[in-house]
Structure formats: structure tokens, C-alpha cells
Amino acid sequence: QETEPELKKNKISDLKRIILSLQSLDTADREKVSVPEEEEIWITDDKTSLTENIEKKLASAGYSTKIISIDGLPKNAPSSLGGLLILAPKGADDNFLVNSFKLLQLAAPGLRACGKKSSAVFATVSCLDGGFGLKGLDADSEPLTGGLAGLSKTASHEWPEVNCKAIDIAPDYDASDDIINEIFLKGPEEVGISKQGRVSIELSSSQIDSSAKGFPLKQGEVIAITGGARGVTAECAVAFANKRPTLVLLGRSKPPVPEPDWLAPLTNEAEIKRQIMLHAGKNASPKLIGEEYRKLMANREMLKNISRIESAGAKAVYRSVDVRDADKLKNTLDEISSSLGPVKGLIHGAGVIADKLIEDKTDEEFDRVYGTKVEGLKNLLNAIKKEELKFIVLFSSSTGRYGRTGQVDYSIANEVLNKIAQQHAKLYPSCRVVSPNWGPWDGGMVTPSLKQLFEKEGVGVIPLEAGAEYLVEEVSSDGPVEVVILGNLPGEKTEPIEPTKTKQAEPTTDLSVSFEREISAEGFPVLKSHVIDGKAVLPVALMIEMLAHGAMHVNPGLIFHGFNELRVLKGIRLNGNESVTISVLSGKAVKKDDSFVVPVELKSSSQGKEFRNAQAEIMLATALPEGKSRLSGIDTQPSQRLSKNFYDDFLFHGPDMQGITKIDGCSKQGMTATCNTAPDPSSWIENPLRSNWISDPLLLDCSFQMMILWSFDNLGAGSLPTYAKNYRQFMPFPKDSARINVNVIESSSSKAVADIEFIDDKEGLIARMEKYECIVDTSLKKTFENNRLVITD
Predict the structure, then answer these.
(1) How do residues 598-612 score in pLDDT, each as one tens digit?
(2) End of a domain among 145, 177, 205?
(3) Of 245, 264, 414, 434, whose Cβ has the fewest other Cβ atoms within 10 Å?
């Protein structure tokens, strides 16, 4: 008992706690931004005199201006746009933020083009209190408009060529002169404006003073927690369980059920999957087995966490509900209040991410990410008697505080949560309200590769237990509403510091780093199904996906059309517990006919050594042309050599990569087969680069698998890909299956060359690969048979 406080101190000391304050801002000695006067500046209409005043003053200064209705967005934007000012109107709602995002998407090419050739500005203007809510938001304030800061901060990460800024003005103050002056100044990304002058947000380290208050709930009182019974929110629930409340866990998953007797003693993944297959019957597909395994493990985790809560002395109740379903949520919480008592504590931890650059983000992705956070919170507050609440915790993110590439929707949503928290704290002073802007947790959505990326950015991950215990301490204190919580880097001292933005390394050639990623069997579970000679091998099809992403990442707005001169220089092979860092480098896009050619290269580094693994020229376009099949009349017939068990007899591919469903025919001329398309990227990769594939790595790999089968059938030896002259994609891949036609144009005892086409069910040409080359080697059969991943010490 006497050592417990010291243990907690040591765990929480693994964290940095950063608080926000306002600092007076001087306008002198700040670098100016010069936008050419002939470039148009757009200003959204906030339906007040502020818009008119800004427009007139910019026009009188010689600028070309245009007032834009946020409710009726223009269809087109200039190819070069000098500036965009988004002004929050009174009565702004969720649609205003959605339309602001859409307007920025529309203006993006023009702003970036102008920024690259001269200068361009983008600014958002909210009207909270002239201090981003840190001065206090009353009932008339509109916290939703605080989300605009997330829009500008994300744009500043993605578009260094554009001067991006978030401005917050005090109500009833004509800030037009200050706004015009500020947008043409470099300096803080966030500037508050009021009669008292301008302020910026200052970040400083601070320790919790938990002696000032004490835990606000009595034993048995109800805490509602969104985010389910798994992951980070479940870990926090376990920490709160030590206070012995009644914990109501709200999640979208179905309630957990007791494990069947056959499963309870099993812990090995392979054995569990074998038992699933036995119980499901012979018709169970690898995909079905994988899905069932994930369901069972999720159920096991939920059961374990509920047991941990109850072991700590708290009562645990789980309810399946989507926080975006207002009616069902209210009914659920009404039932809880009637049976267990009123909700006294609320922890809103539900959230999803869908990383994609501003120009690439879809409306559906934005709605899902934003809605889970913001709509979910509004539904909760409408369903709970707010005056009964003794504390509220809103899980925000450091992405809201700092912005982050690819997370514009997440940044906006978390900034909205921050400002709703500020307003609630002002309106209900007896309720402890805290909005932790969490850095990445060591768990949840953070994979080992992401963890390494965060370390390179100067951001450590938050240990699960330390973060959970910290939250109990924060709720028990009388601290500020918005706090930033980050983990320490390995070996780092505990003094809190600000995270830094990623800086690209200076290129030593014409290529520069587009992105980096850690590759491991843990972070890329699909590698367990791609094992040769006891080692996981990164599929060439995924190399292609990464090279394409690298080119598109630095050329937003263009789509993948194909590649030229793909060369596999060195495979990436891993033991079961090994990891390697890969880098994709890209060069300048060069216009060629109707396409843009981007040179790319994939490198890997491990144990201080660097290797060149693959290179190509990625072809990008503004639209995909129509393609026509060139392969017709391939003479194939049923193969006597290739049995129905070809995956067991000839190929090394495990369940996730077994895409060939039917071999239609095989001959010396070539081969045809029907193959499944790839599942969602998240089925293969813990934290995928994109939510949808650029090409289709399973179909591409199936074409390589077909060449392995062809080489066994015709040359008596296995094969592996080494080169492809070119590849062109003419339409998106279908969602279910496609036919692959392989025409072998050259072969010998050591090499085979083929043209390959991918055909949809309407005989349309999806894509074509020309002069695919593979090495042929009799020794490959033995290495293919050794397809179980080796774990080394």
C-alpha cells in the first residue's frame, strides 16, 4: 500500500503534459508575404459587414477579389489563385465545416500553383472570443467554428508553398484591418484578434496538481464510456475501475459471448485457425477462417477487459450502440439511467481515421471521421442530463492541436471537441471538463511502423497503463480544459517539449524521400501468407503499390495510370520477429503526352545497412483512357500436371494470398484463370497507407502466381518476378473477381517473358502488363515448400 503512489508517479512520469496559454503578439519584424495583385483572392460571405469591409479594403489595395457563397460553391476555381479567406458566419453548423472543406479542395490546385510560382495565402476566421476559446465561451458562442483551425493547420503541413493561418476574432469587433494585415504576415499559425490586440497560443509544460480537488464520483456512480471494450478506452476503463464506479461501455461491436469449450485453452493462432476450419467444415474459405479468427480474438479481448474491470471492484456493463444513431443511443442511456442510475461521468473515446491528403479525401471519409467524433458527442450530450454530470472527458488528439498530413477531417473534428469542452466548462463550472489532446498511444491504431515514424518526428508514444492512470489523475485535478499529452521518446528526459514537424532530408540525387514505413510481419499480417524458405517476403505487388503511393503522395490530384521499367533489385526478406524500414523516393513529375512520368525508387535499411530494392517510372494522369484487349485466342486446355490442390503442391502462398479460384486452362502458349480481388487494405496491413488500393495487389500477385504454375507445368521449375517493361491501368479493379490471361512470348530454362491482361466480367480491359520477366530455377521448389515463418531470438 505504501508504494502505490510511487508506482503511479513512475508510470505517469513517462508522459509530457503541455498546457495552452495566450501570449501577446507583436506585428513588428515579421516577414511579409507578397501575393501578386493580379491574382484573385476569394472571400467567403459571412453575411455580416466583415466580408464587405475585407473585400473593399483588399480591392482598394489593388487586389482582385471575389466573394463566394459557402452554401453555393462555384463549380470551378482559377488555375492560379492568390488567396482564400473562409469566414465563419453566425449560426454555422456541421454543413458549414463540410462546405469549407469542399471549397478548400476546389481551390487547392490554384492556391498551390500560385504559391509555387510566387506566394499564396489561405486563412480561416472563426469568431469565438479572440483567443480560440481560451478566454471562455459563453452560451452564444459557436464552438463548431473552432474546427476551422484544424483545416488551416493541416493545409500548412501538406502545402508548405502556401502561407496558411487560423485567425480567431472577438465578437462585436471590426477586425477587418487586422485580418488583412495578418494574412500577409508569416508567423504563428494561430492568431487571436480583439480590441486588446493580437495574441498567439503558447505551449508550456505543467504538472498535475491532483491535491486541488479529488475524484469527483462516489463508488457505484455511473460512468459512460464510448469506444467499446477494446483498445485504449478499455484500458482507461480499467484504470477508472479502481475507483469502483459502475462502468457502462458503449461500442459498435456485438456484446461479447462466452468462448466455446474448444477455443478456451488455445492461444496459438495457427492452432486456433485449424480448429475454426474443423468446426466450420470443408467448405470454409481462407477468407472466412481469417474473419472468424479476428472475431473470436476481438471477443476474447472484450471478455478479458470486462473481467479486469470487475476484478478491480467495479461493475461493468456493455451495450452495443453506434453513437451516431441518436434514437438508439438515447434509448440505451435512458435504460441505463433507469436500471443503474443517472450518468455522472462521460468519457467520449469513439473515433476513426481515414488518412488521405486534402485533395484526395472523399465526402464519405470526411463524414465518417468527423461524424463519429462530433455528431456522436452531440448525441451523447442530448441524451444525458448535462446538469447531472460531474466530469466529462473528450478524447481529442494532438492532430487537432498541431495538424497532421492526411488527417484534415480528424484535425477539424478534434478542434471542435476542444471548443465544445471549453464552452461546457464555462456553462457548468461544477463539472470537471477535460479534453486531452492525446499523442499516439502504444496500442490502438499505432503499429510498430507508425511508432517508428512518430519517433522520427520527435513524438513518443503513450504507454497504455501510464496514459490510463494519468487520465484518472487529470479528472481528479482542477486543471485546464485543453491539455496536450505526449509520450517520451526512448531514453529521453521527462521534461515536456513541443513536437516538431517532420523535415525531409536534403536529396543527394534527383530523388527525395516521399514516405518511410516500417515493415514487419506484425504490422503487415499479409506477410505471414508470403513466406519463402522460412522468411516473410514483401510481395512485388505491394512494392508496386508503395512506389505508386510515393509518386501520388507528392503529386496530389493525379491518378495512377501505370509504370515503366519496373526492376526488382533485391527482395525484402524478414524473420518472424524482424523489421526493416523502407523508404520510397520520388523525383519531379515530367509531362509526357497525356501522362506525367515520376521516377521512383524503393530502399530499405536494417542494422545500419541500406539497400536498393526496386525502381520504376510511375505514370500518372488526370483521367484513365479506355483500353482494348490485345490478347485473344490463347490456346489453352486443362492441365494434367496442375491439380486442384495447386496451392499445396506448387505455390508457397498462404491463405491471404490464395486468390486463384479456378485455372481455366494452361498450355505452352500461356494460361487463363479466374481470380479474386484483394480485400480492403486494412485486412492485410495494420495501418495501411490508403483506405483503398491504388491497383489490386492480389490480382497482380495472382498473375505472378500463374507464371509460377506455368513454369512448373512447362519448364519443371518455379519462378519469381524480376522485371516488367510496362503496365497500364484503364479502369478501377472490380470488387469481386477478374479473369487473368497470360501469353508467354519467350521462355528458357532460366527465364520466361509474358504479356498479361486483366479482364472484367463484361470483357472490358482493366489493365495490361507487357514483357513481364521472371527467373526460373529448379531450387525454388524446395524453398517454396518451406513456407512457415521462422521466429528467431
Answers:
(1) 999 999 987 778 899
(2) 205
(3) 264
